Amino acid sequence: MKNEMNNMRRTKIICTIGPASENENCVRDLIKEGMNVARINFSHCAYDEALNRVNILRAVRKEMGVPLAIMLDTKGPEVRMFGYSKPVLLAKGDTLYVESTEAQPEDIPVLPPEKRHFFTNLPRIDKLCQIGTRVLLQDGFIELEVTQLHGEWPGAVSLRVLNDGKLKDKAHLAIPGVQYPIPFMSEKDKKDIAFAVDNGFEYIALSFVRTAKDIADVREIIRGVRPDSPIKLIAKIEDKQALANLDDIIRDSNGIMVARGDLGIELPIEELPGLQKKIINSCYLAGKPVIVATQMLESMTEMTYPTRAEVTDIANAVLELTSSVMLSGETAKGAHPKRVVNMMGRIIDRTESSIDYHTLARITHDYVNRDEITNIMAYSVVNTAHDWNAKAIAVVTDSGIGARALSKFRPGVPIYAFTHHETLYHQLALNWGVVPFLMENPETLRFSEVAQKIIDHLLKQGAIENGEKLVFMASSPFGKRRPTNTIRCEVVGDTTFHEAT
């Protein structure tokens, strides 16, 4: 069977593509080790670089015959430090002068590091602080406090460094608990979103989503570029305002990313594990994919082996039933991307083997949406597959709704999703437990013909064997866009079957 372990793996892996991995050999290795989604971070990527990466990813996924979603991650309203070009060593007790600027990064002057004069794109920083306000740099690793406010235009503050650290180029600046007066989308973000639509990305991850209206605004841009675009939107949860609007954001997005880097700065860090668990739970019960991101195997950016805490972190996310775990710098700029993905896959496989999926599916009974027939049918299919000891579930899907409904109930068997839409085929690579396959349009075929074609294909792939049991779910007749209405149970190789409609 081609890629057998990855077909059995339920929790998906997202890899960020960067200088360390933007070549065909490395992408091929990452796919073999289990990459399901390739992320391109537009905070650090020009259009020509992005197109090169997209072309490589598409060429390799076609060559290997595998589903692989490509995701653009927007820069969003990031707050950063400028005015220096090399890392600056800061010592406890140092005083920094940080000045707001409206200039573009390329126009901001670079000053000698000994001046300790820096710039930020945060407007009127002096209006957002008080004496004693806590400020964090470098993803929270450097802590400072405000010692003086300088109210002249454009506004500045003096800060005292509270711990030693190395300030890297364009480091993040955060004032915990403060809502920044920066629009959700910059002109760059709008252009990047249009670029994703024009170039057929499967997903856009939206940085710093605060309300459901942010998502609606992005959809309006997408409609202006291509009204029938099938692109899906992942909302990144990164601050208190997003948490306050979480239910609405989950409802209106196509998925959620728990962006723990900024979330762990904006909130007391000890609250992060509980929030992660809550967000994952809310998403999978809503039937939406959820991604856990940031520093999952950070030590392996340089080292060849992870810390015990990182291993436990990944395992806990899997046990909490996240749809996907994400690698950032580990694969974008790390020393050994292939080894990192291999390690993440090993941790996922071992953790998933300890989960009681039969009990889990029954627990979700109270969350079946009785107003959606597809939801009811999906729950019945999962229970049938477990009770009948089926090898797998096969779903024929035109929109992905059926496959995602099955994923919601976290079955203990693979969900083989068959679609004739290539974009959907790649998009489903993100969904927990779903193994997508591309098929011919079944519109002119009878259900029995489609079922036999699927069985023949799965036999050829080595995914099933004669004598094993398979549960089908579909909307019949095909091509009519009717709600899911058919469950069919087959013993592979047998001429008898049971069908419920």
Description:
- This protein is an alpha/beta fold and 501 residues long.
- The protein has 3 domains: 4-76 and 184-352, Phosphoenolpyruvate-binding domains (TIM Barrel), CATH 3.20.20; 81-174, M1 Pyruvate Kinase, Domain 3, CATH 2.40.33; 357-500, Pyruvate kinase, C-terminal domain (Pyruvate Kinase, Chain: A, domain 1, 3-Layer(aba) Sandwich), CATH 3.40.1380.20.
- The chain contains 17 helices and 23 strands.
- The protein has helices at 4-8, 24-33, 47-64, 187-198, 212-225, 240-244, 246-252, 260-266, 272-286, 308-319, 329-332, 337-352, 357-363, 373-387, 401-408, 422-427, 447-461; strands spanning 12-16, 35-41, 69-73, 81-82, 88-90, 95-100, 117-120, 134-137, 142-150, 156-161, 165-167, 173-174, 203-206, 232-237, 255-259, 290-293, 324-327, 392-396, 415-419, 434-438, 469-474, 486-491, 497-500.
- The strands form 4 sheets. An 8-stranded parallel beta barrel has the order 1-2-3-13-14-15-16-17, surrounded by 8 helices.
Features:
501 residues; alpha/beta; TIM Barrel; M1 Pyruvate Kinase, Domain 3; 8-stranded parallel barrel; 7-stranded mixed beta sheet; 35% helix; disordered N terminus
